[in-house]
Amino acid sequence: MATTVKKKPLAALEDRFPKLGRGPQAVLITAIAIFAVIFPLLMDPISGTLADATQYLAYVVMGLGLNIVVGFAGLLDLGYVAFYAVGAYCSGWLMSSFYADANIHILVTGTAAQAPGVHVNFLLVLVIAAMLCAVAGVIIGLPTLRLRGDYIAIVTLAFGEIVHVFAVNGDGIHPFGVGYPLTKGRDGISPIDQIKLPGLSQFNSYLNLRPYYWTILAIAAIAIFISLRLRDSRLGRAWIAIREDEVAAASMGIPLVKTKLQAYAIGAALGGVSGAFLGPYLQIVNADSFAFSFSIFVIATIILGGLGSVWGVVLGSILLSYINYTLIPDQLNSVPHKIGLDFNLADVSIGIFGVLLLFVMLIRPEGLLPERRRKIELTEGIGAAETSFEVST
Amino acid sequence: MALQDAQVDPPAAAPLGARPGDAIRNFISGYGLFAVLLALPVYYGISDLKNDGNLAHLGQNIFQGLSNGAIWALIAVGYTLVYGIIELINFAHGDVFMIGSFTASALFGTLGLTLVSSTGSIVFGLILTLVLCMLICGLLNVMIERVAYRPLRNAPKLAPLITAVGLSFILQNVGLLWQGGSPRSVDDLIHAQQDVFTFLGITVQRADVLAIVVTIPLVIAATTFINRSRLGKAMRATAQDPDAARLMGINVDVTISLTFLIGGMLAGAAGLIYALYQTTVQFNQGFQAGLIAFTAAVMGGIGNLRGAVLGGLIIGIIQFISDDRIGTQWTPAIVFAYLILIMIFRPQGLLGEETREAG
Prior knowledge:
The complex is a heterodimer. Chain A has 17 helices and 3 strands. Chain A is an all-alpha fold. Chain B has a single domain (38-345), classed as ABC transporter involved in vitamin B12 uptake, BtuC, CATH 1.10.3470. Chain B has 12 helices and 4 strands; from the N terminus they run αααααβββααααβααα. In chain B, the strands form 2 sheets. Chain B has a two-stranded antiparallel ribbon with strand order 1-4. Chain B has a two-stranded antiparallel ribbon with strand order 2-3. The radius of gyration of chain B is 21 Å and the shape is globular. Classes of the chains: A mainly alpha, B mainly alpha. Chains A and B meet through helix 7, helix 12, helix 15 and helix 17 of A and helix 5, helix 10 and helix 12 of B.
């Protein structure tokens, strides 16, 4: 394989734009942050754009979680949907009348306090979901400790599929006794309690989406903050060391088992938090949403954004969610009719998504906003001779 | 022979003195896997003996599993070849198999093969279909490599994984537009369910005969080609060390294309067998088949041809036992649970050498 690294077409374009310094970068981020906060006030409280934005932010949180596992620690996880499922089911179990025989109310007010079933305060559910997912992450991580590379991918994929099968068939399992099935299968647990948080107007996923948006925005901001701080911490450096060379990292005294499991646990917890938010937001926890294709979607968002790059992942998640959930199915759907072709774009939407993934990767395999460290490795060709076949992720 | 058999890997970190748990650990890694693999058949064998007094039911499960596993084996060989040579999980491979099924069902129409055709014309037509399916899928796979993987050979390792997923989506969409979204039935040309003979209480159906008669020669041909021919030697050399292979005058690009051609051809054959065996085809059949076949390849030891075949057959058996005794809806979970157990007990797979990846 050629040892010279060809300059990518976009790199030339990049050189023409001066890199932003630290100051202007901060200004840019602040401006975007302010816009993100006031954005719902410019919208109708039930507008579709606001609904989409809320959903995208939930995917950003998941992308950030997966980025810790794949981007920082270099453990290719193809079963991330498992944590979305566990998180979402936490809200399904603890915030609905699904277990109508039980009568548990913890820190809830209003209609939720009157209804039968288990009703727990949303913040508590978030904590429970994060903890449960962290445990699940460690359980999934344990068998992969001896493995590397694609073997990790296949084991995590297997776990993801097992969780999916349990979600679909869970209506036949009664782990907590008769009348308490594990899930409601393809019918889905619905409705879920609306979130209630002090200081925000009434949450209502049919009439007022603004509080939902602000909640997930806050969660996403916290996830970004956690990601940035972790990246620069001792733990983050240990992850990156493992990613670059596991043997060298171990010989430098990094405890591999502990460090890897921490990555799985933290990454999984973020996925769980996002899932626990999507439950009440979408008002349904349906087994069909936990398919393997969702894991692929999340991994695509972070590779598109730039593995390991926090801002890249944010950008990639928003962009890909927009394309996959809004642009192709909604906005472009009527285009073929307008230009006189007789088919719906929805019929070829997965194909378009595929073509897009293909081209973005061919043009820019390092992602939209690559992490600085990776970019240096790629452009200066450190070990370029062996990248062809042996680069370890 | 395995692509990686000849690969000399340094032994994974030499043990620093014997530790107390070592004996147990060695025992588990040596025999634990067999215990895991035998658990289902032995359990149901005992329950059969108790209830029926013979093992015919279990034997039937295992036999049908073998013939069904033959399809997975053919697909798994494609995965393992590609992984062995460029270390890429070719996510599009399952969809190449799906295109093979669709091509077969379309060709039946084109060739005018229907249930009323004479036996001679059906046999001739099926052979022709098989050849065409294999050619089309082989060329499709070569094209996929050329478009989606070759430009990324120097890119980060995850980039081709995403293009593979992209191509998988594209092929699924092609299938969706071609034959529609719902399952489509294929003429039962060979009367798949018809019994051929019964042996020791095991009924052999025509579909089983077809799967075995097509798979065995193909696998033998592929193995012989890779072991004996000059091009096969080039493939093994490229799998071991592409740069050194290039220095020895091997055209690495052609060799990789050849690998994809062989993998695609086997997937095409699997597609034809599947169409006749199941008598329905669907645009998303390739996805599940791809996952199962990749599991089979990993189970056997990825990069190892015989391992892939063995893994395919084992998964076929597990599937049938589980379908019959536990319930179809749980089968994927059971298959993947087996995969995880195998990864715990023997990460290098059943026949795999200890590699860097799985060390």
